[in-house]
Protein backbone atom coordinates (compact mmCIF):
# COMPACT_ATOMS: atom_id res chain seq x y z
CA UNK A 1 0.00 0.00 0.00
CA UNK A 2 2.57 2.54 -1.07
CA UNK A 3 0.74 5.28 -2.92
CA UNK A 4 1.07 8.91 -3.91
CA UNK A 5 -1.74 11.49 -3.99
CA UNK A 6 -0.98 13.88 -6.84
CA UNK A 7 -2.99 16.94 -7.88
CA UNK A 8 -3.23 20.69 -7.79
CA UNK A 9 -3.74 22.47 -4.46
CA UNK A 10 -7.28 22.15 -3.17
CA UNK A 11 -8.21 19.02 -5.10
CA UNK A 12 -9.04 17.05 -1.93
CA UNK A 13 -5.80 15.11 -1.39
CA UNK A 14 -5.56 15.88 2.32
CA UNK A 15 -9.27 15.34 2.96
CA UNK A 16 -9.22 11.88 1.41
CA UNK A 17 -5.76 10.86 2.64
CA UNK A 18 -6.75 11.39 6.28
CA UNK A 19 -9.74 9.05 6.00
CA UNK A 20 -7.96 6.35 4.00
CA UNK A 21 -4.91 6.37 6.24
CA UNK A 22 -7.11 5.75 9.25
CA UNK A 23 -9.20 3.08 7.52
CA UNK A 24 -6.18 1.13 6.25
CA UNK A 25 -3.93 1.83 9.28
CA UNK A 26 -1.11 3.41 7.31
CA UNK A 27 0.42 6.87 7.83
CA UNK A 28 -0.58 9.93 5.81
CA UNK A 29 2.69 11.68 5.07
CA UNK A 30 1.90 15.28 4.15
CA UNK A 31 4.91 17.48 3.43
CA UNK A 32 2.62 20.52 3.83
CA UNK A 33 1.65 19.40 7.35
CA UNK A 34 5.29 18.67 8.29
CA UNK A 35 6.30 22.15 7.11
CA UNK A 36 3.38 23.89 8.84
CA UNK A 37 4.32 22.17 12.11
CA UNK A 38 7.92 23.36 11.72
CA UNK A 39 6.65 26.93 11.14
CA UNK A 40 4.41 26.71 14.23
CA UNK A 41 7.28 25.33 16.35
CA UNK A 42 9.60 28.08 15.10
CA UNK A 43 12.38 25.64 14.09
CA UNK A 44 15.18 26.57 11.67
CA UNK A 45 13.33 24.66 8.94
CA UNK A 46 10.12 26.51 9.83
CA UNK A 47 11.81 29.89 9.60
CA UNK A 48 13.13 29.04 6.11
CA UNK A 49 9.84 27.55 4.92
CA UNK A 50 7.47 30.27 6.22
CA UNK A 51 8.20 32.99 3.65
CA UNK A 52 8.31 30.52 0.78
CA UNK A 53 4.97 28.95 1.73
CA UNK A 54 3.29 32.32 2.18
CA UNK A 55 4.22 33.22 -1.40
CA UNK A 56 2.90 29.96 -2.81
CA UNK A 57 6.31 28.85 -4.10
CA UNK A 58 7.93 25.47 -3.40
CA UNK A 59 10.42 24.74 -0.64
CA UNK A 60 13.76 23.53 -2.07
CA UNK A 61 14.03 19.95 -3.29
CA UNK A 62 17.02 19.24 -1.01
CA UNK A 63 15.09 20.11 2.14
CA UNK A 64 11.98 18.18 1.14
CA UNK A 65 13.84 15.07 -0.04
CA UNK A 66 15.77 14.98 3.26
CA UNK A 67 12.50 15.20 5.23
CA UNK A 68 10.89 12.37 3.27
CA UNK A 69 13.93 10.11 3.42
CA UNK A 70 13.94 10.38 7.22
CA UNK A 71 10.16 9.90 7.47
CA UNK A 72 10.07 6.79 5.26
CA UNK A 73 12.73 5.16 7.45
CA UNK A 74 10.36 5.22 10.44
CA UNK A 75 8.85 1.88 11.50
CA UNK A 76 5.21 2.84 10.85
CA UNK A 77 5.95 3.00 7.10
CA UNK A 78 6.71 -0.71 6.78
CA UNK A 79 3.15 -1.68 5.82
CA UNK A 80 2.76 1.27 3.46
CA UNK A 81 1.88 4.95 3.41
CA UNK A 82 0.10 7.70 1.51
CA UNK A 83 2.40 10.44 0.25
CA UNK A 84 0.23 13.58 0.22
CA UNK A 85 1.84 16.52 -1.57
CA UNK A 86 5.13 14.74 -2.37
CA UNK A 87 6.70 14.47 -4.91
CA UNK A 88 6.01 17.87 -6.46
CA UNK A 89 8.90 18.14 -8.93
CA UNK A 90 10.58 15.73 -11.30
CA UNK A 91 13.73 15.92 -9.13
CA UNK A 92 11.70 14.84 -6.07
CA UNK A 93 10.11 11.95 -8.02
CA UNK A 94 13.49 10.73 -9.26
CA UNK A 95 14.93 10.90 -5.74
CA UNK A 96 11.97 8.92 -4.41
CA UNK A 97 12.48 6.20 -7.05
CA UNK A 98 16.13 6.12 -6.07
CA UNK A 99 15.33 5.90 -2.34
CA UNK A 100 13.01 2.94 -2.92
CA UNK A 101 15.03 1.08 -5.54
CA UNK A 102 16.36 -1.59 -3.17
CA UNK A 103 13.12 -1.95 -1.21
CA UNK A 104 9.48 -1.68 -2.26
CA UNK A 105 8.49 0.69 -5.07
CA UNK A 106 5.41 2.91 -5.24
CA UNK A 107 2.43 0.86 -6.41
CA UNK A 108 0.04 3.55 -7.62
CA UNK A 109 -0.26 7.30 -8.09
CA UNK A 110 -3.75 8.72 -7.67
CA UNK A 111 -4.26 11.90 -9.70
CA UNK A 112 -7.07 14.16 -8.42
CA UNK A 113 -8.62 15.87 -11.43
CA UNK A 114 -10.59 19.04 -10.46
CA UNK A 115 -11.64 22.11 -12.52
CA UNK A 116 -9.71 25.31 -11.77
CA UNK A 117 -12.78 27.40 -10.81
CA UNK A 118 -13.77 24.75 -8.29
CA UNK A 119 -10.24 24.71 -6.84
CA UNK A 120 -10.23 28.49 -6.29
CA UNK A 121 -13.68 28.32 -4.68
CA UNK A 122 -12.63 25.49 -2.35
CA UNK A 123 -9.35 27.05 -1.24
CA UNK A 124 -10.59 30.58 -0.66
CA UNK A 125 -13.47 29.17 1.42
CA UNK A 126 -11.28 26.80 3.46
CA UNK A 127 -10.70 27.62 7.13
CA UNK A 128 -8.26 25.62 9.24
CA UNK A 129 -7.83 25.02 12.95
CA UNK A 130 -4.43 26.44 13.91
CA UNK A 131 -4.10 23.81 16.63
CA UNK A 132 -5.33 20.42 15.32
CA UNK A 133 -5.32 21.23 11.58
CA UNK A 134 -8.95 20.24 10.98
CA UNK A 135 -10.25 21.80 7.75
CA UNK A 136 -13.59 23.60 7.68
CA UNK A 137 -15.21 25.05 4.59
CA UNK A 138 -17.30 28.24 4.63
CA UNK A 139 -19.72 26.70 2.11
CA UNK A 140 -19.98 23.00 3.00
CA UNK A 141 -18.80 22.75 6.61
CA UNK A 142 -18.52 26.20 8.29
CA UNK A 143 -16.68 26.61 11.58
CA UNK A 144 -18.62 27.72 14.70
CA UNK A 145 -19.50 31.43 14.70
CA UNK A 146 -16.89 32.21 17.39
CA UNK A 147 -14.16 30.42 15.34
CA UNK A 148 -13.47 28.02 18.20
CA UNK A 149 -12.68 24.59 16.70
CA UNK A 150 -15.37 22.07 17.62
CA UNK A 151 -12.76 19.25 17.65
CA UNK A 152 -10.08 20.66 19.94
CA UNK A 153 -11.09 24.18 21.05
CA UNK A 154 -8.26 25.81 19.04
CA UNK A 155 -8.73 28.96 16.94
CA UNK A 156 -9.96 28.57 13.36
CA UNK A 157 -8.10 30.77 10.87
CA UNK A 158 -7.60 31.21 7.13
CA UNK A 159 -4.22 29.85 5.97
CA UNK A 160 -2.10 32.71 4.56
CA UNK A 161 -1.66 30.74 1.34
CA UNK A 162 -5.44 30.36 0.92
CA UNK A 163 -5.90 34.07 0.09
CA UNK A 164 -6.92 34.37 -3.55
CA UNK A 165 -3.73 36.03 -4.85
CA UNK A 166 -1.57 33.25 -3.35
CA UNK A 167 -3.96 30.53 -4.52
CA UNK A 168 -3.52 31.79 -8.10
CA UNK A 169 0.27 31.73 -7.68
CA UNK A 170 0.15 28.18 -6.23
CA UNK A 171 -1.77 27.09 -9.33
CA UNK A 172 0.85 28.63 -11.64
CA UNK A 173 3.64 26.91 -9.69
CA UNK A 174 1.69 23.66 -9.85
CA UNK A 175 1.34 23.86 -13.64
CA UNK A 176 5.00 24.59 -14.18
CA UNK A 177 6.63 22.26 -11.64
CA UNK A 178 4.19 19.52 -10.64
CA UNK A 179 1.92 18.82 -13.61
CA UNK A 180 4.78 17.18 -15.58
CA UNK A 181 4.68 14.39 -12.97
CA UNK A 182 1.48 13.08 -14.57
CA UNK A 183 3.44 12.10 -17.67
CA UNK A 184 6.30 10.78 -15.51
CA UNK A 185 3.95 8.30 -13.82
CA UNK A 186 1.99 7.48 -17.00
CA UNK A 187 5.33 6.25 -18.37
CA UNK A 188 5.71 4.03 -15.29
CA UNK A 189 2.14 2.78 -15.83
CA UNK A 190 1.16 3.84 -12.30
CA UNK A 191 -1.20 6.78 -12.83
CA UNK A 192 -4.87 6.40 -11.92
CA UNK A 193 -7.10 9.42 -12.54
CA UNK A 194 -9.94 10.18 -10.11
CA UNK A 195 -12.69 12.70 -10.88
CA UNK A 196 -12.29 14.95 -7.84
CA UNK A 197 -15.10 17.34 -8.86
CA UNK A 198 -17.62 15.03 -7.23
CA UNK A 199 -18.74 15.25 -3.62
CA UNK A 200 -16.31 14.04 -0.92
CA UNK A 201 -18.28 10.86 -0.22
CA UNK A 202 -18.32 9.71 -3.88
CA UNK A 203 -14.58 10.27 -4.29
CA UNK A 204 -13.95 8.42 -1.03
CA UNK A 205 -16.04 5.41 -2.12
CA UNK A 206 -14.04 5.04 -5.33
CA UNK A 207 -10.77 5.30 -3.43
CA UNK A 208 -11.79 2.73 -0.81
CA UNK A 209 -12.75 0.29 -3.58
CA UNK A 210 -9.35 0.83 -5.21
CA UNK A 211 -7.45 0.39 -1.92
CA UNK A 212 -9.38 -2.79 -1.14
CA UNK A 213 -8.15 -4.19 -4.46
CA UNK A 214 -4.57 -3.07 -3.71
CA UNK A 215 -4.74 -4.77 -0.31
CA UNK A 216 -6.02 -8.10 -1.68
P1 LIG B 1 0.24 21.61 0.99
O1 LIG B 1 -0.24 21.71 2.37
O2 LIG B 1 0.62 20.27 0.45
O3 LIG B 1 -0.83 22.31 0.09
P2 LIG B 1 -1.47 21.82 -1.28
O4 LIG B 1 -1.08 20.73 -2.12
O5 LIG B 1 -1.39 23.10 -1.98
O6 LIG B 1 -2.65 21.10 -0.72
P3 LIG B 1 -3.91 21.67 -0.09
O7 LIG B 1 -3.89 21.32 1.36
O8 LIG B 1 -4.13 23.13 -0.38
O9 LIG B 1 -4.98 20.90 -0.95
P4 LIG B 1 -5.55 19.42 -0.87
O10 LIG B 1 -5.51 18.82 -2.23
O11 LIG B 1 -4.93 18.64 0.25
O12 LIG B 1 -7.08 19.76 -0.57
P5 LIG B 1 -7.90 19.60 0.79
O13 LIG B 1 -8.25 18.18 1.00
O14 LIG B 1 -7.24 20.33 1.91
O15 LIG B 1 1.50 22.56 0.74
C1 LIG B 1 1.56 23.89 1.24
C2 LIG B 1 2.88 24.51 0.85
O16 LIG B 1 3.98 23.76 1.44
C3 LIG B 1 3.21 24.50 -0.64
O17 LIG B 1 2.62 25.60 -1.32
C4 LIG B 1 4.75 24.57 -0.62
O18 LIG B 1 5.21 25.86 -0.33
C5 LIG B 1 5.10 23.68 0.57
N1 LIG B 1 5.29 22.27 0.17
C6 LIG B 1 4.52 21.20 0.54
N2 LIG B 1 4.97 20.07 -0.03
C7 LIG B 1 6.05 20.42 -0.76
C8 LIG B 1 6.92 19.68 -1.61
N3 LIG B 1 6.79 18.36 -1.81
N4 LIG B 1 7.91 20.36 -2.25
C9 LIG B 1 8.09 21.70 -2.06
N5 LIG B 1 7.28 22.45 -1.28
C10 LIG B 1 6.27 21.81 -0.64
O19 LIG B 1 -9.25 20.37 0.36
C11 LIG B 1 -9.26 21.78 0.15
C12 LIG B 1 -10.66 22.34 0.53
O20 LIG B 1 -11.65 21.73 -0.30
C13 LIG B 1 -11.08 22.00 1.99
O21 LIG B 1 -11.82 23.08 2.49
C14 LIG B 1 -11.98 20.77 1.83
O22 LIG B 1 -12.95 20.71 2.85
C15 LIG B 1 -12.63 21.02 0.47
N6 LIG B 1 -12.89 19.77 -0.27
C16 LIG B 1 -12.11 18.66 -0.38
N7 LIG B 1 -12.69 17.75 -1.19
C17 LIG B 1 -13.87 18.30 -1.61
C18 LIG B 1 -14.90 17.85 -2.49
N8 LIG B 1 -14.86 16.64 -3.10
N9 LIG B 1 -15.95 18.67 -2.71
C19 LIG B 1 -16.03 19.91 -2.12
N10 LIG B 1 -15.08 20.39 -1.27
C20 LIG B 1 -14.00 19.60 -1.03
- Structural class, by secondary structure, is alpha/beta
What gyration radius follows from the Cα positions, in whole Å?
17 Å
At CATH level 3, the topology is: Rossmann fold
- What would you say the CATH architecture is? 3-Layer(aba) Sandwich
Helix content: 40-55%
Provide the domain count.
1
* Number of discrete helical segments: 9
Give the oligomeric state: single chain
What is the string of SSEs from the N terminus onward? EHEHHHEHEHEEEHHEH
What compounds are bound to the protein?
BIS(adenosine)-5'-pentaphosphate
Q: Main sheet: which strands, in order across? A: 2-3-1-4-8
Structural account:
With 216 residues, this protein is of the alpha/beta class. It has one domain: P-loop containing nucleotide triphosphate hydrolases (Rossmann fold), CATH 3.40.50.300. The chain has helices at 13-23, 31-41, 44-55, 61-72, 90-100, 116-124, 164-178, 180-187, 200-215, and strands at 2-7, 28-30, 81-84, 108-113, 126-129, 135-137, 156-157, 191-195. The strands form two sheets. Strands 2-3-1-4-8 form a five-stranded parallel sheet, sandwiched between helices. Helix 1 packs across helix 9 and helix 2 packs across helix 3 (44-55). The protein is globular. The model has no long low-confidence stretch (mean pLDDT 95). It binds BIS(adenosine)-5'-pentaphosphate. Residues 7, 9-15, 31-32, 35, 52-53, 56-59, 64, 85-86, 88, 92, 122-123, 126, 135, 137, 140, 161, 170, 196, 199-200, 203 line the site of BIS(adenosine)-5'-pentaphosphate.
